[in-house]
Amino acid sequence: MTPSGSSIENRTFDEIRLADKNLRYEQLLTAAKRHPPITMAIVHPCQKEALEGAVDAARLGLILPYLVGPEEKVKAAAREANIDISAYPLIDVPHSHAAAARGVEMARQGQVESLMKGSLHTDEFMREVVAAHGGLRTARRMSHVFVLDVPRYPKPLMITDAAINIEPDVETKMDIVQNAIELAHALGIALPKVAILSAIETVTPKLRSTMDAAALCKMADRGQITGGILDGPLAFDNAISLVAAKAKGIQSQVAGEADILVVPDLEAGNMLAKQLEYLADAQAAGVVLGARVPIVLTSRADSAHSRIASCAVALLLRRYQQRATR
Questions:
Q1: Residues 212 and 277 in one domain
Q2: 274/46 Cα distance (integer angstroms)
Q3: Is residue 312 part of a domain?
Q4: CA–CA separation, 304 vs 283, rounded Å?
Q5: For residue 23, what is the domain's CATH number?
Q6: CA–CA distances in Å: residue 131 to residues 93, 137, 139, 323
Q7: What is the side-by-side order of every strand in the sheet holding 295-296?
Q8: Which 3 state secondary structure label does DSSP give 37?
Q9: How many domains does the chain contain in total?
Q10: pLDDT digits (tens, 9 = 90+) for 49-89
Q11: Distance between CA atoms of 284 and 307, rounded to whole angstroms?
Q12: Full DSSP string of 290-324
């Protein structure tokens, strides 16, 4: 039981503190389990880790998995992991490329509501997703969002884009921001605070990220980006620490209280997310937005906890999108 007798379900994300680390995970699962599970194509689950994550999420009622890959390799992975997969449909294809193509086709045809990358390379998987003909493109640019549970931060922290767009321009960053805001809404954050990161807090033509930040904030002022509060450029410390922001005299609704960190490029985002995960004991979930369906990108290094959390995020996102289009 939580303080004052309130249940986990009734607590908002920003009420969860360091001592409640496991409660954030439980709260995410509780929120997701209020909805029916989503159908998900697991693309090429031919290694133990990839199969375990999908089956764990299925057992928790988050997904209804379709295993797409070479039948003998999938069954061999199941034997290695000592997992019974007889209850799940297995779509036999000859190799990983065919698995990616079949998974995308299933999503396009409405057979599944989401995708999860299994034991194939991200480039091979995403090549089918972003294909001009037969892929899952929409009018909005695809981007990835890490949802991090950082013990020293009082609420979930999103980082984008650390996996898809290498050196995004302002137009791409506009979609990256809007995608992240949509995910925040799906997670129950009504008005997310978005920090556009750079190395400094002042705008200078000598540093492109500061110019991009200024442009994005003006776009928000003009209604080109909606649903959140933007500020930037902000350095990382000012974005997440009120003490650091006050020390520099920064007056901002976002500084020190960011829900979303928008990084200058993929390298910065990838390093930041992994530093928090490995040095600050953060737990990470992640999802690709801007496609026709939510896409879970996994790594062989991901824990079962991370894979399950990513499926929960994908479920909440899909149900939110369905409500929004009614």
A1: yes
A2: 25
A3: yes
A4: 11
A5: 3.40.50.10950
A6: 20, 8, 14, 27
A7: 90-92, 63-69, 38-43, 114-117, 295-296, 283-289, 143-149, 157-160, 260-262, 193-197, 229-234
A8: coil
A9: 2
A10: 889 989 999 999 999 999 999 999 999 999 999 999 999 99
A11: 9
A12: SBSS-EE---TT--HHHHHHHHHHHHHHHHHHHHH
Encoding tokens for residue 310?
């990513």
The DSSP code for 257 is: -
Residues with Cβ within 8 Å of 156's Cβ and at least 6 positions away in sequence, in order, are 13, 24, 147, 148, 149, 187, 259
Q: What is the domain extent for residue 43?
A: 1-10+17-137+301-326
**pLDDT confidence tier of residue 21, bands split at 50, 70 and 90:** low
Structure-block tokens of residue 288: 């690709």
For residue 12, what pLDDT is reported? 44
Which residue do the tokens 């922290």 mark? 157
Say which residues have a Cβ less than 8 Å from residue 100's Cβ, sequence separation at least 6: 43, 44, 120, 124, 125, 127, 128, 129
Q: What percentage of the chain carries pLDDT values higher than 90? A: 83
Q: Does residue 295 sit within a domain?
A: no
Token readout for 262 is 């928008």
Q: Are residues 101 and 142 in the same domain?
A: no
pTM: 0.90
Q: What is the pLDDT of residues 156-192, one digit of tens each?
A: 999 999 999 999 999 999 999 999 999 999 999 999 9
Whole-number pLDDT of residue 23: 74
DSSP-assigned beta bridge partners for residue 42: 67, 116
